[in-house]
Amino acid sequence: MLFKSNFANFTHFVRHEMKTPHPTLPTYISVVPRLTAEFGQLGAEYDYVTPDGVHSKAAEIRGHYFDSTVAQEQNGWSDEDREEVERSLLTLSARWPEAVQQVARAAAPAPWPTYDTTHHSKVVSLAVDLGLVEQALAYEQENSKRPSVVAGLSEKLAVVAASDEELAVA
Questions:
Q1: How confident is the model at residue 166 (pLDDT cuts 50, 70, 90)?
Q2: Range of 38's domain?
Q3: Same domain, 98 and 126
Q4: Residue 108 falls within a domain, yes or no?
Q5: Contact predicate 3/37, CB 8 Å
Q6: Is residue 9 part of a domain?
Q7: Same-domain status, 6 and 70
Q8: Which of 3, 24, 82, 165 could form a disulfide with 72 if both were Cys (CB 3.0 to 4.6 A apart)?
Q9: d(Cα 137, Cα 157) in Å, to the nearest integer?
Q10: Residue 149 pLDDT more than 80?
Q11: Are 129 and 120 contacting, i.e. CB atoms less than 8 angstroms apart?
Q12: For 100-113, what is each residue's pLDDT tens digit?
């Protein structure tokens, strides 16, 4: 799920880290990691001068979005952890819509006007000829999801990426 925050670098704590200490040893029996939804990424700090002549520092903040599936991959969350974060954000968005809103992803447009009527055996070759392999793959994965077409487009995209790397090195 994709969420948006109106606040720069907004962080929503879903669950704090929980440590269960061993009764006699100076160690922990178990550690349950914290779950947080972090909107935005902090960039580099920079100096600036205000109109009054005062020197100040600020940080560049990019984003304002949180993608739960990307966060799951980056943080190594289980599906249950991801679902817990999503439920918590949905609850927060209902209570405080000014802070967090669920947003829908924009649908990928058809790579060419007759894509949906093109026979599946011709899609890959046409996409290569038209230079639209990446767009065709995105559209196919969102809509038709035909395994043979997805596999063929993925293979062609890997070949195109490899040839681009060879050109960059040369």
A1: low
A2: 2-103
A3: no
A4: no
A5: yes
A6: yes
A7: yes
A8: 82
A9: 9
A10: yes
A11: no
A12: 999 987 778 889 89
